[in-house]
Specification:
Layout: H1 2-44, H2 46-51, H3 53-77, E1 80-86, E2 97-101, H4 108-117, E3 126-131, H5 140-146, E4 149-151, H6 158-173, E5 180-183, H7 190-203, H8 218-227, E6 255-262, H9 271-276, E7 282-292, H10 300-324, E8 335-339, H11 344-370
Parallel strand pairs: 1-7, 2-5, 2-6, 3-4, 3-5
Antiparallel strand pairs: 1-8, 6-7
Protein name: Acyl-CoA:lysophosphatidylglycerol acyltransferase 1
Family: Belongs to the 1-acyl-sn-glycerol-3-phosphate acyltransferase family.
InterPro entries: Acyltransf_C (IPR032098), Plipid/glycerol_acylTrfase (IPR002123)
Length: 373
Amino acid sequence: LFRVCTSYRIISNIVTLLKCVVRTAFVIVNNVYCIPTYVVWMMLLFPVKIYQPQVYWRIEGLFFHWLLAMVSMWTWSAGYDIIEQGDDIQKIISEKTLVIANHQSTGDVPILMTTFNAKPNVLPNLMWIMDRVFKFTNFGIVSILHQDFFIISGRKRREESLKQLQKHLKDSYIPRDRKWMVLFPEGGFLCKRRETSQKYAKKNNLPILENVTLPRVGAMQMIFDTLGPAENRNAEDQHLNSRPSLAVVNPEISWILDITIAYPQGKPLDLPTIITGSRPPCETVLFYRLFPSSVVPREPEQLSRWLYDRWVEKEVLLEHFYKHGSFLGTNGSNRGSTKVHQDPLRFLVLHLFFITSSYIHYSMLTYVLSCFW
């Protein structure tokens, strides 16, 4: 019996290793025939960007959604399901919304991409605020073309980065009529920031947190100074709606969507795990809370307190979830658990589109080169 069990474990390990190798190879190939062809399409559409920018950005949004659908497929095909709980967010799909979430690992972004992929019109009109390091990854060129924002961490360049964020909101978020904006206020992964956060909390008599870290308020403050309800913004920003180049009637943020990401047993998925599928299938739970932007204070100290209160609530929610497998504090206004479903046929069609596009672009390139050599 011992030999049988040993043999089974060896075979199981070999199968798992082969699966990881195959999935990794597929993801690499997937990147090769998706990202370059996206870039080529955007280059070919550049004249449209000049003469019909609204048409260009609508097309770009579709391509961006299709690319993120590829990432969603990695998560879905590995058996990493996503469960939604809390407030019903269907009513804000087309509203200007600031999404804030706790940040545990490199798996958070693919998890959110997978969730948003199943919701029409979210990803095409979404702007990510991410660490500048992601600008230099394979997906960086896509985020640059989509006009996401890369924030610079560190005290020395914080003020400069926040001014750049304000400029980006005025030059990109508003003119493109983006709807959702994703921000991780903690500014880093839980495992990297927990010790520093706790030291800061002890020094400043703030809550000492284990499952989340104290959020940073700078980026959120800048977003509300720029896009908050009109009566709470500076008069100098009131000219935004009257710019001749802008067709947006109301650039204001209407909602705050607070997402608490909870992984099973408190063990976060990371990007390598999602790519390889090395972890057994599991469920990640997203707990939603909606706040009208009008209830969020604008004064820096009060905004910090409001944001800290949300993160203390996350601490309690996650502690209960890790102990009991469910969130605490649900009430009658909350919907039940809903599993996020993906469309396999759509994945297939998108793969065929990107493969065909890559072949066409390769043929075009070889023809052009043949004219010179």
